Amino acid sequence: MHFLRDALCEDHMGVTNSILVIGVGNEYRSDDGLGILAARELRRRNIPGVVVVEQNGEGAALMDAWEKYDRVIIVDALDCGAASGDVHRLDAASKRIPAHFVHYSSHAFGVVEAIEMARQLHRLPHVLLLYGIEGQQFDVGPGLTDAVLKSMPDMLSSIESELKRMRTLPPEAHN
Amino acid sequence: MLRRSGKRVKPMKNRVIKVDTLARVEGEGGVFIKISDGKITDVKFRIYEPPRFFEAFLRGRNYSEAPDITARICGICPIAYQMSAVHAIEDAFDVTVGGQLRALRRLIYCGEWIESHVLHVYMLHAPDFLGYEDVLQLAKDKPDVVKTALRMKKIGNELVRIIGGREIHPINVKVGGFYRVPRKKDLLALVDDLQWARDRAVDTAKLVATFEFPDLEQDYEFVALHHPDEYPFNGGRFISTRGLDIAIREYEFHFEERHIPHANALHSVQKGVGAYQVGPLARFNLNFDQLTPIARQVAQDLGALPPIKNPFKSIIVRSIETIYALEEAHRIIEQYEEPDAPAVKIVPQAGIGFGASEAPRGTLYHRYRLDDEGVILDAKIVPPTAQNQPSIESDMRKFVSTHIDMDREQLTWRVEQAIRNYDPCISCATHFVKITWE
């Protein structure tokens, strides 16, 4: 059933006064499942004015997903050399993604490429926040590692507070 | 997942080209080339294959779960995994899906080819030929080109979304057909966009044909599916440029997977023969007559006729296949009549089923053994990249050996490009791409 629910959520795109949360990842790649599992939990919390979708991180599809939204939060697992379980928040709309998060793929056009491409083409949402937890391992298999699981509640509370705060502010007031 | 960059290390006396990957993922894909005293002493293309995990994951599951589970093996080609899975399971149950349901399967496959080929041609491959470090630099210089590419790709996404239920991990495909079928009016709404995109795809083919192609040709045996009346997506027979002509169910009599220690994965070879190649060049060389008239005409105008053996020219063939997919999608939509039922009735029975389809990057083979309640007893999945791995290594060896004095940055870049020729399904496996020198 949840597959159908996801489909309906995606069909709601175009509600421009809503805030979009995109959970990015692959639930069969250990800690890479973070974004997907976070999206499902945030959807369960049913926060008013918030649309939640799941994506696999293919960049062009990400750009399409946020096309009609002013305010977007992306949740993704990180591998940026920090301690496993560290929670990060990046303001991707006002600053370039730091140099140590570079594109890494010969095949996919991923999250960072999509953000920097959208910046180049003036297609960035007004507010674009990137939330993530430093992962410990990304082998195939379901389930997050303990280090990431332990940090999930904190990250989800931060995102929920952020969403509630964002709803009280016009997009222009976020910078 | 977002990852951090690696460090570039200065070369030592003997050169080592290493395309590094994430150290914490066991067996992730990567490239290792060692040059000692002006000669190549080692070439390794390591790849990590999630299908092994998924084969185990499928055991004990009901047949109806296979399309959703296998769709998650690859974010770029979920339809290919779904199609090979449903064909194999239908084969085991002695079910044939024809008429408009089969046409819809071809239509959703068109969507995946458009998405995948446009992504690869513009976002990954063209920047190589145009001398840009990546597509971001291309976007900076030529934003309109990239905007056009994104719009073309989006049309593929739309097709997949309308038929598949959503564009990422489509949910509407099932054994026997679909959970629901699209309305004709929703498909007709795409026609103007398809025609626009077809014209842009023709422009694309003309553009990429002007690129300068490194000289690399080997005597590959090309293998692809073949259908008398269709350019191959779903089903048909396996044929090759050396006369192979076998049913899909005979695949394992002729091909086998060998464990390669350095790859931590299985390389596919043709028994008694060795390396072979699947993918756009193979399809094109073996199925040129099945292309649509415009696609064929463009190929003729560009002098891009089979056999094309230079893998760098796969960018031309992907562009021609994009024209084909857009034309074929248009044709299917024009002829579409909403079927009475979204799927044919399925009655599970014990047996073994075989299926193959043409993923954008090559043939994808599935085999399932099921019990009389439709529970999967075992599964075998042979992805296109596993089949192309020996050719990729062979290309790297040949290219490096003939350009051994090339400037290290140039050579590294060319090696990356030589791998990209195959559009390797590494995103199913890994994010991959930083090159270091030791």
Notes on the protein architecture:
- The complex is a heterodimer of chains A (175) and B (438).
- Chain A is an alpha/beta fold and 175 residues long.
- Chain A is built from 5 helices and 5 strands; from the N terminus they run H-E-H-E-H-E-E-H-E-H.
- In chain A, helix 2 packs across helix 5.
- Chain B has 438 residues and is α+β, with helices and mostly antiparallel strands.
- Chain B has one domain (51-386): Cytochrome-c3 Hydrogenase, chain B (Orthogonal Bundle).
- The radius of gyration of chain B is 21 Å and the shape is globular.
- Chain B starts with a strand and ends with a strand.
- The interface between A and B is large, with 58 and 52 residues.
Number of beta strands of chain A = 5
Supply the number of helical segments of chain A: 5
Q: Report the radius of gyration of chain A as a whole number of Å.
A: 15 Å
Query: Mind telling me which CATH architecture of chain B this is?
Result: Orthogonal Bundle
The first-to-last residue Cα distance of chain B is: 27 Å
Oligomer: heterodimer
Order of helices and strands of chain A: HEHEHEEHEH
Spatial strand arrangement across the major sheet of chain A: 2-1-3-5-4
Largest sheet of chain B: 4 strands, antiparallel
**Whole-number total of structural domains of chain B:** 1
**Could you please say which CATH topology of chain A applies here?**
Rossmann fold
Kindly state the percentage of residues in helix of chain B.
40-55%
Number of helices of chain B: 14
